[in-house]
């Protein structure tokens, strides 16, 4: 996958920058990450964004890239020197992959140069008019020339390499292009094609050389100097002439491939190379659009992968919480069952347990040494004493003994099913059970200070304590799981709001105002404040348009854009615009029912009578005002869908003008007929002002 610009890409990108961005002013500078920056430019109503990434690319972009919330120190430095400056020139230093953007002019003593290096690790360097470095992305020292790139050092503009001339003879070609070296039975550089070797010598670009090699009828993989020298020389001459030409118009092409039914972008190019003719390609109008689409798709894929990983991590945390609570509850249930079983075994062997406890107590009371007691028990075991055999271990430090009690095993199937039902028994329970023949041997810890009944009661008490703990754990688990699920849902919502790279829709000129499209397809605009009222009247009110204003102080100025001045605006549209004018006036907040009036464009003037002054957003209305009926303070909203250019033809005629529809229902036709008759019978609108000579002021 292609990751950075070639020399040909730089040529195409600079051609677009010169055509579209020169003499634009810098509005602001943003950083996407530590290597990628956005330059926002403007000239009159034309707005553009230039994206540059250190070491990789420079191109105009139409995508909405996610910006850092706080600008970096390097962005602040660029803003300090470049904000408000004009982009004067964009050039390539020699034939190197270095772009020089000039801002301002030396005549005004505000000239600065932004140098973007697109080779190796790349760099972004801000210089003054004498190319003294003011700031840079990374300081370094060139290993070959020992040139230091740091603040207050001079940038070596004169060291840029020019475009190398092609080889002119077969001897020169053979001298520079050597066949791959052979070591033993393996080639050292078996993948080094003739195109790559030529690019390493001349730097024309591997793709461009391969393109002209195929044009000369050569196979890129098998072409050699010894057999195809003349064709290779012709190819190099074509490359040199193409790069040296003044071509300024480039299209954009994206090579794609399908992997597991997923379309993947592989490469972008300023024109379709011969080697890409058979590949699946996407053709775009401009090279910058291809680069934009290519990197935008990659960025979206990275964002999706990051989002999927974050979702997986959040769900895994929730599952771990649930699993932990399940394990706790399971261990408490097992502890209850184990305590009940031990208590029942003690009750089944009361005499044996009491005898064992009394025997050890009497020995301890006789002040016999612990080792002697153990020897005494071993002798009893050898003699077959059942009490001594039942005592398996003495734990006199903790005042306990370990007894071995047997539990009858009634059926193998029952025990196996029981083991299956309790597969997660504690290690202690498993180690305390030994199967011997038809019995299950269980080891039980007994307290010497208690009787057999006392020890059984202690196990029952432990069972009840475990049951209480289980109920409390269940209650706590519900709260903990609710809290964990809430946190997980919140994190998933935050993950889903991760911004992806999307194409910015170019806004229409009227979207900065209040606007709507009437039912008869008239565009209506209204000012949001006094300054916008001033703007729409001075700039957009033309002959044939209609000016509408609410009959209250502090209202928006509304304009109906009439494309055909020979036809008057119909009463239906005027009523809708009057309704909008009232709703966008002070009547909305005051909840006052009022009406609006309309006049023609030639009745609106900014010239005040002698001795009077018109403030911003106020105008003189000369002649008769045509009043409209009072309007209710009700507003609605709708959706407009932007169609692709390829889809416009399929939706032609869908938005039909109200009143001109032929195939409507009969009821609607009759209602429309009544409305038309009323409009024809009435020579002027209801509530018209009869005083034609009165001049009034609108604000």
Automatic annotation (TrEMBL):
Q: What's the domain of life for this entry?
A: Eukaryota
Q: Which residues form a coiled coil?
A: 300-335
One Pfam family assigned to this protein is NFACT_N
Keyword Protein biosynthesis carried by entry? no
Q: Where is the NFACT RNA-binding domain?
A: 512-623
Q: Chief location of this protein?
A: cytoplasm
Sorted keywords for this record are:
Coiled coil, Cytoplasm, Nucleus
InterPro entries, alphabetized: NFACT_RNA-bd, RQC_Subunit_NEMF
Q: Where is the composition biased (Acidic residues)?
A: 409-424, 679-699
Per the UniProt entry, what are the Gene Ontology biological process annotations, in alphabetical order?
CAT tailing
GO cellular component labels = cytoplasm; nucleus; RQC complex
Name the residue ranges with Basic and acidic residues bias: 667-678
Entry GO MF terms: ribosomal large subunit binding; tRNA binding
The family classification in the record reads: Belongs to the NEMF family.
Cite the PANTHER family for this sequence: NUCLEAR EXPORT MEDIATOR FACTOR NEMF, RIBOSOME QUALITY CONTROL COMPLEX SUBUNIT NEMF
Record's subunit section? Component of the ribosome quality control complex (RQC), composed of the E3 ubiquitin ligase LTN1, TCF25 and NEMF associated with the 60S ribosomal subunit. The complex probably also contains VCP/p97 and its ubiquitin-binding cofactors. Interacts (via its N-terminus) with XPO1.
Name of the protein this chain belongs to: Ribosome quality control complex subunit NEMF
């Amino acid at each position: 996958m292609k990751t950075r610009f070639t020399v040909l890409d730089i040529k195409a990108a600079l051609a677009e920058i010169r055509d579209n961005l020169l003499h634009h002013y810098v509005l602001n500078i943003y950083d996407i990450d530590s290597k990628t920056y956005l330059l926002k430019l403007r000239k009159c109503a034309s707005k553009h964004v230039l994206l540059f990434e250190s070491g990789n690319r420079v191109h105009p972009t139409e995508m909405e890239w996610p910006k850092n919330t706080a600008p970096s120190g390097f962005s602040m430095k660029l803003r300090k020197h470049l904000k408000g400056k004009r982009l004067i020139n964009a050039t390539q230093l020699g034939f190197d992959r270095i772009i020089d953007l000039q801002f301002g002019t030396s005549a005004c003593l505000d000239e600065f140069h932004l140098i973007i290096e697109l080779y190796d690790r790349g760099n972004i360097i801000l210089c003054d008019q004498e190319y003294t470095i003011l700031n840079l992305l990374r300081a370094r020292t060139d290993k070959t020339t020992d040139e230091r790139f740091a603040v207050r050092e001079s940038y070596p503009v004169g060291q840029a390499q020019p475009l190398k001339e092609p080889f002119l003879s077969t001897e020169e070609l053979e001298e520079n292009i050597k066949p791959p070296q052979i070591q033993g039975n393996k080639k050292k550089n078996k993948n080094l094609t003739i195109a790559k070797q030529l690019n390493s010598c001349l730097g024309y670009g591997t793709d461009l050389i391969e393109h002209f090699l195929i044009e000369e009828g050569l196979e890129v993989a098998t072409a050699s100097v010894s057999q195809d020298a003349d064709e290779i020389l012709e190819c190099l001459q074509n490359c040199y002439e193409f790069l040296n030409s003044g071509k300024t118009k480039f299209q954009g092409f994206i090579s794609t491939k399908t992997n597991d039914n997923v379309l993947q972008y592989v490469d972008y190019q300023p024109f379709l190379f011969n080697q890409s003719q058979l590949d699946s390609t996407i053709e775009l109008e401009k090279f910058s659009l291809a680069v934009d689409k290519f990197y935008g798709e990659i960025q979206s894929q990275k964002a999706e992968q990051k989002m999927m990983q974050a979702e997986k991590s959040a769900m895994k945390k929730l599952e771990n919480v649930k699993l932990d609570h399940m394990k706790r509850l399971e261990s408490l249930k097992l502890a209850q069952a184990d305590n009940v079983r031990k208590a029942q075994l003690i009750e089944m062997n009361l005499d044996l347990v009491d005898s064992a406890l009394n025997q050890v107590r009497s020995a301890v009371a006789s002040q016999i040494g612990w080792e002697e007691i153990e020897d005494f028990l071993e002798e009893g075991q050898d003699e077959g004493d059942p009490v001594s055999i039942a005592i398996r271990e003495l734990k006199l430090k903790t005042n306990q003994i370990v007894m071995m009690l047997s539990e009858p095993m009634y059926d193998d199937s029952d025990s196996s099913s029981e083991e299956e039902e309790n597969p997660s028994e504690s290690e202690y329970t498993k180690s305390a059970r030994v199967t011997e023949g038809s019995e299950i041997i269980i080891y039980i810890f007994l307290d010497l200070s208690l009787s057999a009944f006392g020890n059984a009661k202690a196990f029952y008490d432990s069972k009840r304590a475990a049951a209480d703990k289980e109920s409390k754990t269940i209650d706590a688990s519900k709260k903990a799981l609710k809290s964990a699920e809430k946190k997980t849902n919140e994190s998933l919502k935050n993950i889903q709001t991760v911004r992806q790279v999307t194409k910015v829709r170019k806004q229409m000129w009227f979207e900065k105002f209040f606007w709507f499209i009437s039912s008869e397809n008239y565009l209506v605009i209204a000012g949001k404040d006094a300054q916008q009222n001033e703007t729409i009247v001075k700039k957009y009110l033309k002959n044939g348009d209609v000016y509408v204003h609410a009959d209250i102080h502090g209202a928006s100025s509304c304009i109906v854009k009439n494309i055909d001045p020979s036809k008057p605006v119909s009463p239906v549209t005027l009523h809708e615009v009057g309704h909008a004018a009232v709703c966008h006036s002070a009547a909305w907040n005051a909840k006052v029912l009022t009406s609006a009036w309309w006049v023609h464009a030639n009745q609106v003037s900014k010239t005040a009578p002698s001795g009077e002054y018109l403030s911003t957003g106020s105008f003189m209305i000369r002649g008769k005002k045509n009043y409209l009926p009072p309007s209710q303070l009700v507003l609605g909203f709708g959706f407009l869908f932007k169609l692709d250019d390829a889809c416009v033809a399929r939706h032609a005629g869908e938005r039909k003008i109200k009143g001109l529809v032929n195939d409507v229902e009969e009821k609607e036709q009759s209602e429309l007929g009544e409305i038309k008759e009323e409009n024809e019978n009435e020579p002027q609108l209801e509530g018209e002002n009869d005083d034609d000579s009165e001049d009034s002021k609108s604000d």
